Amino acid sequence: MKIVALSLCWVLILTAPGVLARQIAAPNQSWDVLRQTLVIGNLRVERKDGKKFSGEIIRVTATELEINRKGKLESFRRDEVKKVWLVVSPRNRTQFETIGAVSGALAGIIIILGLASKECGGDCGDEKAGIAAAFIFLPTIGVFVGRALAGKSKRTLAYSAP
Asked: Does the reported pTM lie above 0.70?
């Protein structure tokens, strides 16, 4: 029971909110700057009606912007776009998620070994449930902790309608 409590304390400590990344905002970037600077990457597009869309940039012409959103091409006319942000994910996100999953798995193994060596006296239902929980949930929690430690995606304002 002490191991479970200690593991939960570490999870709470590691998932405490960190310093928020500042969003760099460039006021009223022109559409021409957007056309020239963005070649690849992910975008977040806000239309003038308030709806927001995210996806991989396909192309920017003088009159429209086209993104790949969930495998489907979405195009936006220049006059309906309010703002466009360039979204950059942390490079080390996968590495942190992997480290978190491995750490969670190791903590799960320690808990499983502790529960497996415990004598249950006929009814082992609680121990079996604890073993299953440690096997499934600790690596999953580790992935989420790793993702939180890697940081959030950073957005840079690339275009703002005048």
From this structure: no
